[in-house]
Amino acid sequence: MKSDYFKTCMVLMVTSACLVSMQSCKPKTAQSAARGDATKSFVAPGKYDEFYNIVSGGFNGQVAVYGIPSGRLFRIIPVFSQSPESGYGFSEETKPMLNTSHGFVPWDDQHHIALSQTKGQHDGRWAFANGNNTPRIARIDLTTFRTSEILEIPNSAGNHASPFITENSEYVVAATRFSVPLDDQNGDVPINTYKQNFKGSISFVSVNPTSGEMNIAFQIRTPGVNFDLSRAGKGKSHGWFFFSCYNSEKANTLLEVNASAKDKDFVLAVNWKKAEEYVKAGKAKKQAVKYAHNIYNEKTHTASSTIQTEVVVLDPADCPDMMYMIPCPKSPHGTDVDPTGEYIVASGKLAASIPVFSFTKLQKAIADRAFDGVYDGITVIKYEAALHGEVVKPGLGPLHTEFDGKGNAYTSMFVSSEIVKWRLSDLEVLDRVDTYYAIGHLSVPGGPTAKPHGKYMIAYNKMTKDRYLPTGPELTQSAQLYDISGEKMKLILDFPTTGEPHYAEAIPAALIQDKQMKIFKIEENTHAYVSKGEGQAKVERNGNQVHVWMTAIRSHLTPDNIEGVIVGDEVYFHVTNLEQDWDVPHGFAIKGANNAEILIMPGETQSLKWVADRTGIFPFYCTDFCSALHQEMSGYLRVSPVGSTVALHFSTGTNKPVVSADSVKPSGSASGN
Ligand code: RUQ
Ligand code: CUA
Question: Residue 453: CB within 6 Å of ligand 1?
Answer without folding.
Answer: no
